[in-house]
Amino acid sequence: MRIEWDVKLGFKDVMFRPKRSTLKSRALVDLGRTFRFMHTGTEWTGVPIMAANMDTVGTFEMARALAKRTLFTAVHKHYTVDEWRGFFAGAPEGIADYVAVSTGTSDEDLKKLVAIGGENPQLRFICIDVANGYAEHFVDFVKRARERFPDKVILAGNVVTGEMVEELLLSGADVVKVGIGPGSVCTTRVKTGVGYPQLSAIIECADAAHGIGGQVISDGGCTIPGDVAKAFGAGADFVMLGGMLAGHDESGGDLIEKDGGKYKQFYGMSSATAMEKHAGGVADYRASEGKAVEVPYRGAVEGTVNDIMGGVRSTCTYVGASMLKELTKRTTFIRVAEQENRVYDGK
Ligand code: 5GP
Question: Residue 198: CB within 6 Å of ligand 1?
Fold first, then answer.
């Protein structure tokens, strides 16, 4: 047994230190970024905020809404080949720049991915997603996917340490998804005790990825726009959101009316609810590592997107970054023991 003594930090442990700025208005801040991907050599431009590949978040409806603002959707893996065909038949031109098809690592998953990719050559992005990105089997799958799809941008995860980010990038991933345990409906830390505070995970993984020309996605743990800004400040190239995008018209999950209020279902992809829906129940060798909740219904996602983008723009003006790209260079985090003032909570 060994203990690492340097403290790892989460979003709640820091704030941005304000810096002198010549920016006159947050309207002047450009949240668009352009990336060149390390294996395909292709470029992407957009606002690097992503909807998570959960069936209550990363839906086709979400993809249509977010693409209008050049935000990205990792579409969940449970749509059929036919449903994908239907999506591209009715979707606006250019939407392929803002969607990824998600897949697990089973033979069935690969077969389906090949079918969807074969029928929809415009697809540019594949998101290979497993709970534990440290498994050798997963690395092998990334290598096979790179050989099979040389012109597709591969997003792969999840991991939380620099050496594994390097291994995945060198095995064929263009972008590595970072986060184990921070998710709003994740119970991995409860069930297993495994995890890594998200801010430190981003800082360490971004450093590793950028050293060899790759990018990272911060996945999970953002609860407010300030957290999204902190993830970018820490060095994330993309920030993936689940809970912050749940509860909208475009989110999946049933609308529930009770006690005069409206709610939407939101659940982890490893929750008993998801496993019952997609896998016929929780297999007896495993525990569910996600929970199911009902979140207040919030209408169209557009309002939430404006709120998030407005927050990040404002962060940029506080530290003097005229573009999102500059935010991390202008970031000094201060270690804190307090966050917002909650005196009126519940009033
Ligand atoms: P959020 O933005 O809601 O905090 O986190 C979203 C992320 O949580 C997802 O992108 C995914 O990585 C993770 N996640 C989703 N469902 C589950 C689950 O059932 N178990 C665990 N451990 N993580 C989950």
Answer: no
> In the chain, which stretches have pLDDT less than 50?
none
CA distance 186 to 20: 39
**Distances in whole angstroms, Cα of residue 167 to Cα of each of 171, 175, 343:** 6, 12, 47
Spatial separation of the C-alpha atoms in residues 256 and 263, rounded to whole Å: 5
Helices 301-319 and 225-234, packing angle to 10 deg:
50
pTM above 0.90, yes or no: yes
Distance set, CA 70 to CA 60, 64, 75, 88, 97 (Å): 15, 10, 15, 17, 9
**Separation CA 156–CA 247 (nearest Å):** 26
In angstroms, the CA 294 to CA 86 distance is 29
Q: Give 186 Cα–ligand 1 centroid separation in angstroms.
A: 5
Residue type, 341: N
Q: Does residue 331's CB lie within 6 angstroms of at least one atom of ligand 1?
A: no
Best CA proximity match to 176, nearest among 160, 188, 195: 160
CA distance 147 to 142: 9
Read off φ and ψ for residue 266, nearest 5 degrees: -145, 130
Distance CA 316, CA 313 (A): 5
Pocket test for ligand 1, best of 11, 54, 190, 199 (most atoms within 8 A of CB): 54
Instruction: Determine the length of the chain.
Output: 347
Measured from the CB, is residue 242 less than 6 Å from ligand 1?
yes
- Please, what is the end-to-end C-alpha distance for the chain in angstroms? 48
Q: What is the pLDDT of residue 107?
A: 94
In angstroms, rounded to a whole number, what is the distance separating the alpha carbons of residues 308 and 180? 23
